[in-house]
Specification:
single chain, alpha+beta, about 45% helix, 3 domains, Helix Hairpins, six-stranded antiparallel beta sheet, 12 helices, Beta-Lactamase, five-stranded mixed beta sheet, Heat Shock Protein 90
Length: about 400
């Protein structure tokens, strides 16, 4: 049997791990109610220590989580040695235990202790219960219940340890950790809703009757698909940047950039029919840029403005050339960004605490800043209660 680490740190870690398993208080309650016993506990047991990790005490025994007993005064050490339950209905009349020191020392008549053994064979401890009154704990159904609960605790503890090990690995490998964490978040949350929408609406279109209402359903399907595409693009762009590839841009002279930007605004109007978008363009010459990336830039900035701006106020888009520099501005009215947060808005995966769940990944502004940076420009933000919030991208038009 492998030696258990009995350091104070290891014991505290195991007590905390058991404390994080939400089902254990309910299990201990069931144990007491089914047996009529007043005290039940999950104990960490080694050859040298006995530590209570979770306790239900209805008899005033006096132990709390983290409390210890001399392991030599307990019967759990015998259960550990035999790797088998120890069960006593009436200690003072039991032919084996009537002279045993443990029942006498702790003034108990009924006792049951079942080993908690992890999947890898590690002996963690015991699920046990005691009471100063006799109880029929040797009944097969009671022993079976304790055994099942002990197996469940072992499974949950193993899972908790795996989770803690994963978190430790994530902390020590920060670059990989952030990607892994956020990809899980994407798959588990942000992509789930739009994917479900696409699936259900696709079923309606495929199997429903050809009715006018299908037009609206089709439009909603398109909007959900566009949202998925934007999420995937943002995540892939972020992943490429973190893996060293950087933000890719294909610079070429674009003579009709204003029309490309109008297409983005038109798409946003369709997706937000109740919102007002005002646009103004003064681009009277070619701009050397990546057309698709600038559309992505405007889409991200305007979507952010629509999300966080006052719903009864317009979002304004301005794009113009200024002495060889392309200036793209997106402004909205509403609650300003807190001064303490202005320096964080371009951080990846950062969202203000006031953001509603499902509002996005927090990558849009980070990706926007990287697009501008890849063009040799800068993206800034000002936000006040009087003027509202304005994001300004300045890019060399002839780079």
């Amino acid at each position: 049997m492998a030696e258990i680490d009995d350091s104070a740190e290891a014991i505290a870690r195991d007590v905390a791990a058991i404390g994080r398993i939400g089902a254990i208080p309910s299990l201990l309650k069931v144990v007491c109610e089914m047996t009529g016993m007043g005290f039940a506990a999950v104990a960490r047991v080694s050859d040298n220590t006995w530590t209570a990790c979770a306790v239900r005490d209805g008899i005033g025994f006096g132990l709390l989580p983290g409390g210890r007993l001399d392991v030599r005064t307990t019967l759990c050490i015998e259960a550990r040695a035999a790797r088998a339950p120890v069960v006593i209905d009436h200690a003072s009349q039991d032919p084996v235990y009537f002279k045993h020191h443990t029942p006498r020392l702790y003034n108990i008549e009924s006792y049951i202790s079942v080993p908690i053994v992890l999947q890898d064979g590690e002996y963690f401890g015991n699920l046990c219960a005691i009471d100063p009154r006799p109880a029929k704990v040797s009944e097969p159904r009671i022993v079976a219940m304790f055994t099942l609960f002990a197996e469940l605790i072992a499974f949950q503890l193993q899972d908790e340890r795996r989770r803690q090990q994963a978190e430790t690995a994530l902390l020590t490998e920060r670059a990989t950790s952030e990607l892994r964490e956020q990809f899980i978040a994407v798959l588990g949350h942000d992509l789930r809703n739009p994917l479900a929408a696409v699936s259900s609406m696709a079923d309606l279109i495929a199997y429903g009757e050809q009715q006018p209402e299908l037009v609206e359903i089709g439009q909603r399907l398109q909007a959900a698909a566009r949202r998925m595409a934007r999420l995937i693009d943002d995540v892939l762009d972020f992943a490429r940047g973190r893996l060293g590839a950087g933000m890719g841009v294909a610079l070429a002279p674009v003579t009709d950039l204003a029309q490309d930007l109008r297409e983005v605004v038109a798409e946003l109007r369709q997706a937000n029919p109740r919102r007002e978008l005002i646009e103004n363009y003064a681009i009277d010459g070619p701009v050397r840029c990546d057309r698709a990336r600038l559309q992505q830039l405007l889409s991200n900035l305007a979507s952010n403005a629509l999300t966080h701006g006052a719903p009864d106020q317009p979002v304004r888009v301005d794009a113009f050339l200024d002495a060889g520099t392309l200036v793209l501005e997106v402004a909205n009215r509403g609650t300003p960004i807190a001064p303490a947060n202005l320096g964080r808005v371009f951080e990846p995966y950062w969202r203000p605490a006031s953001s509603s769940p499902g509002g996005g990944l927090g990558l849009g502004l980070y990706i926007s800043s990287q697009i501008v940076k890849a063009h040799g420009g800068a993206l800034t933000v000002v936000s006040t209660g009087q003027e509202g919030t304005r994001f300004t991208a300045r890019l060399p038009a002839t780079a």
